[in-house]
Amino acid sequence: MIYQIINTLLKKADPELAHSLAIKFLKNNFLPLQLFTSKTSKKLEMNLLGKTFNSPVGLAAGFDKNAEIYNSIYKLGFGFAEIGTVTPLPQSGNPKPRVFRLSEDKGIINRLGFPSEGMVKVKETIQQNKPTGIFGINIGPNKESISKIEDYLQCLEYFCDCCDYICINISSPNTPNLRDLHEKNKIEELLTSIKLKQKTLNNKTPILLKISPDISDANISELSAIILQQKIDGVVLTNTTITRNKDIISLNKNEVGGLSGKPLFDVSNEIIKKFYSILKNQVPIIGAGGVTDGQTALAKIKSGASLLQLYTSFVYEGPYIANKINGELEDLLQSEGYETLKDAVGKDCI
Question: Can you name the residues that pair with 99 across neighbouring β-strands?
Fold first, then answer.
């Protein structure tokens, strides 16, 4: 009852204010997290990146930008949490308003522009509250940066000793020229620099790459070849999209920014299938975009994802969403004859 009242109020508030309040509720234990906790099935375990994920459902970057609530997230049935995007220097992001609900479409448009407390403050927060679960850090450049590559390298060096993986975000549509890094020469330069920095640091923290859905088949082929050549440890598919399909009905549909949630579902699945057809099982895929229940989760797994991330459905459905997906996934695996979740990965690509 308490959560239902809080959730109703949050849905009526300004989206960014509602997000700040949700962070405070989780950070200060205003919600009875034990009511949302349940034990996950062994069938859902995935062994990737040198870790055992007890649930494939993770919290996507963007929700816990400054590393405030990840330990609360683990208590809600999530198998992992990714914080950020974190930038080297603090920055406020783009002018408000910059977050828009598309309630009729179960989507969100944001043009946040990497608001971040900066890597120094974020690392201090992490050191004061050690992660109790699998923990990823999403990093990106400052808006006014002279060298985006140098920004990534700074964050990599600063965070590589305090997380389970680092995700290189080259795909936000809200930072000027960031998506240019999808171009062959630029991504080769970036990833070569990152691998060289890792070697210098004698560090083996897994490196993941977060990719845009707004790319061509030729770009997918180029990126896949580079990912394999550079031995990147995983890819997150996908970030938000700047395209708008004709079925979107919300009055906010024409706001500038990246669209997430249900309208992204089919788009991201197609991108996942195309990457999986090339990468196969050599590079694991984390699927993001429109995961709302067991059916959509399994569809993304069968498209080629080994793990999942969500953000928008957490906003709309609330803190029980991960446990709901876990339970429904287990039932679906049994009904479709899969022994484990791993057996379902990529089945729609065969």
Answer: 110
The CA distance from 83 to 256, in Å, is 24
Residues 155, 119: contact at Cβ < 8 Å? yes
Q: What angle do CA 256, 260, 262 make, to 5 degrees?
A: 130
The verdict on whether 172 is a catalytic residue reads yes
Q: Give all domains of the chain, ordered by start, each with its CATH number.
A: 37-340 (3.20.20.70)
Rounded to a whole number of angstroms, the CA Rg of the chain reads: 19
Question: CB of 70 within 8 A of CB of 29?
Answer: no
Q: What is the pLDDT of residue 24?
A: 87
Model pTM? Answer: 0.95
**Active-site entry in 172, 212, 260, 303:** 172
User: In the chain, which stretches have pLDDT less than 70?
Assistant: 1-13, 30-38
Number of neighbours of residue 173 by Cβ within 10 angstroms: 20
* pLDDT score, position 27: 81
Torsion of CA 322, 325, 165, 338, to 10 degrees: 150
Task: Answer whether 55's CB lies under 8 Å from 97's CB.
Answer: no
- Alpha helix positions (H), 41-179: 70-74, 119-128, 148-159
Q: Residue 31: left if φ>0, alpha if ψ -120 to 50, beta else—which one?
A: beta
229: Cβ contacts below 8 Å, ≥ 6 apart = none
DSSP string, 264-287: GHHHHHHHHHHHHHHHTTSS-EEE
Residue 97 C-beta-side C-alpha neighbours within 13 Å: 14
Helix (H) or strand (E) holding 186: helix 184-201
Q: Which of helix, strand or coil describes residue 60?
A: coil
